[in-house]
Records
---
Amino acid sequence: MKKKTSLIAEQMSGQRKQLVMLTILSLLLGIAIVSQAGLLAEAVQRVFVEKASLSSVALLLALLLSVMAIRTLLSYGNGRVGLLMAASAKANMRSAVLQKLTRASMPSTLQGQTGGKVSVALDAVDEADSYFSHYMPRMVEAAIIPVLILIVTFILHANTGFILLFTAPFIPLFMILVGLQTKNKSEEKYAQLAEFSATFLDSLQGLVTLKIFGQARRQQQRIERSSLGYRDATMDILKVAFTNTFMLESIVMLSIGIVALELAIQLLVFKSMPFHTAFLVLLLVPEFFNLLKNTGTAFHSGRTSMGAVRKVEHMLAETNDSSGTQPAEVQKSVAKLLPAPPSMELNDIHFHYAPGSFELKAGTISIKPGENVAIVGKSGSGKTTLLHLFAGLLKPVSGTVRVNGSPLGQLDENAWFEQVSYITQHPYIFAGTLADNITIGAGRNITRDEIWQAAEDAGLAPLVAQLEQGLDTFVGEGGRGLSGGEKQRLALARAFLKRPALILFDEPTVGLDLQTEQILQSSITVLANNATMITVAHRLYTIRQADHILFMDHGKLAASGVHDELLECIPQYAEMVDIQRKGGSA
Ligand code: ADP
């Protein structure tokens, strides 16, 4: 609740000038409304009651017309200020969301569905628009103009003033009741929309896989269900909104009716009131209720926006936890710790993705600077999880990961990842040129020669030489147009530019062609000369080459040592190696 007001309040405090502008415009608008009614009543009094000629009221009518024009201009001005406020608030919120997403710590970046995040960044921020463009201007108007009209009415005819005073509170009261209901519904709507977007984007990204497995139809049904859920949530809100409008109209009609009746009795029965005053009051009363009614509608859209703002806040709060708030001395120490190949140590590590699911207990592991370590084990034994713990991509539930003796959790994330290269089995290739993709993450200005050298070192040169546009060849999103082996080599070229102190390598499980394997092997060896290297190893060659093997079994570190040792002492290890040999992956 406290948080909710904070984002809006933050946006509002940046918009004080506009708020003052709104207040001034609303005050002028109030004066224009009262003057318009006054002038109209005067003209009608003169023409119809005093039977004055039309020409004698020409000046009055001209004045009336200009007041009407001014009123229109002021309304327009109010709307414009609202739009400006909305535009700047949206820009601020969107940049806050993007900043959080880009600066979020690695573990939180990996959480959640991309579609859901996109939906917050685009749709939820858009929906926040009406809070500033509609709700705020109406609220400022509602705080000023009805009060002004009420004062004028009291001065003209106190009885009517009392009727207004007694009936008016029904409107906000009713709005609050309905608003509370829509608020929950609109939050629900956002949950539905986020789910819909997430399902939709996931399905689009995995369309080929879905088709191959004949699941496209089922996914279509899932999307349909998700979209129907969103529709229902929207319809629920509309239902409340329409009922709200109906009830508001009824209250307003009834109140104006009571005022009209009272005025008629005063005017005709008691003859205690001049026509001019009665007419003026009758003109002002609908204006009064109209304003309150508009506030009702604005209140409703304001509530809907609140749901959206809440969603944005939620996301900002979620990713807030560890976005670069370490003290400066700790940040600096990363530079001191690295880039020389670091030692790494895991102490009493315990990790699980969710309580009750897969558990990893690695105990204590020490890796010396420059060592070449292989993590081996059956599929699902926790090799990748362990690698991610070393990388700091996952945070242990208990225990510490240390780099050169310092806890990894205390290092600045950006500085840490500047020293680490993680070569996954499926490196992500962005839509852009080969050169762009190689230079990504180098963290400094790169010359063309350096890119060439990196491509050469990674065994990409023959491929680049074949391409008409060489390094400037455009590759599609996700590396469309590149083979698996080529993507791996591109990832290696990135690592060559970076010259990392720590290399994490998830070795390809399945068949790259022999030549690619040899290129990868020799490139990795060169890279590893100046780095500590931890590999999730599948090939016997890699395992044999390792200085130190970590053998994982059902989430536990079952043994560690060199190949021959393990082969002799650990039967499960020997069995696994045997299977691997037979599988022909060595
Ligand atoms: P390996 O690399 O040895 O094949 P992993 O470390 O990838 O094994 O996985 C170990 C276990 O953790 C598996 O049971 C897997 O299902 C589970 N797991 C992996 N990633 C996640 C995740 N992001 N969320 C939940 N469970 C996961």
---
Amino acid sequence: MSKTAFITGIAGQDGAYLAQFLLGKGYKVHGLVRWDSASEPYEGRSRINALRLNSQNLTLHMGDITDANALTALIKKIKPNEIYNLAALSQVHVSFQTPASTLDINTNGTLNILEAVRILGLEKSVRIYQASSSEMFGSTPPPQNEHSSMMPCSPYGVAKLAAYHLARTYREAYGLFVSNGILFNHESPLRGEDFVTRKIARAVVEFEQGRTEPLKLGNLDAMRDWGFAEDFVKGMWLMLQQKMADDFVLSSGEAHSVRTFVERAFSYIGVEIDWQGEGESEQGIDAQSGRVLITIDAQLFRPLEVNYLLGDASKAAKTLGWAPETDFETLIGLMINEERNISQNGSGPWLKAG
Ligand code: GDD
């Protein structure tokens, strides 16, 4: 008999790829969609539309991760074998402006899932994936793995860390099968437009098509370990196929600065960037034409920054047999190519027929 999965945050990048992956494995997939994720012009809509076209085995439910009663009722009705808790406020910079709602969504939302499973007595029949984050490591020096200290630097990181500990506590206290996936940055053409990689990929294609206004960026020197989201959702699934629940880092194992991402992205369209000036006056110039392509906007700096994330995913490699399949250069190329498709056709063929 086919398995049933319930994905909270199905309208997001990871939710869309995960739904596609599970549908391809013959799962019946139920997804929780927040009311405003399903309305125009929010970009989540296009991900959902793409999914809707693809399968009869997909059911979307309007709801909210912060509504404990409704969530419990939904889980009771769906009777999932696997729950993937991906719903979150995921923009780290926004979490500084909305810290209380970040905790409500990212921490209490997770608690609502754990409590629902416990209250419904589903401890033995449901497996839970909790979307933990490398932001939880914060200022801990690289490389980071499952044993590194957690020193978060944002309300987002703090909220995710509390959720991570709640998951571990419920695992030990009540025997819930709940695994934390500690995922380093993972990108794709489905990435929200205010995350730095998508913002850069989009701007590069706009420059290719005649954009004149410089791209404004914040901290160019932050180091991130960027992988491809489609590779990572397979790791989420693998975590729930193990004998025992556990916690795993998923990462590409390579770190690059935002500056390097910018350089490689422009080099993909044949433009070499020459950096001039310092601090807030720094500019990225087209080395050939002298045109200003990048400027710094102080408003895009965060009150506190995670400087260096570099994951060590050797436990996932050994235990899950998981490895990233898409390298940094390939990721940049596929994001730019898809951005070209989006600008020409209005949408890209992001999701394979499932
Ligand atoms: N968003 C954004 N916009 N970031 C910028 C910009 C800009 O204009 N300019 C520089 N940056 C820098 C940020 O300061 C940060 O150091 C880095 O680019 C990456 O920022 P994001 O793409 O916003 O991602 P993130 O690293 O903060 O968080 C992502 O990864 C986490 C896992 O480590 C998110 O997906 C989180 O939800 C996720 O948990």
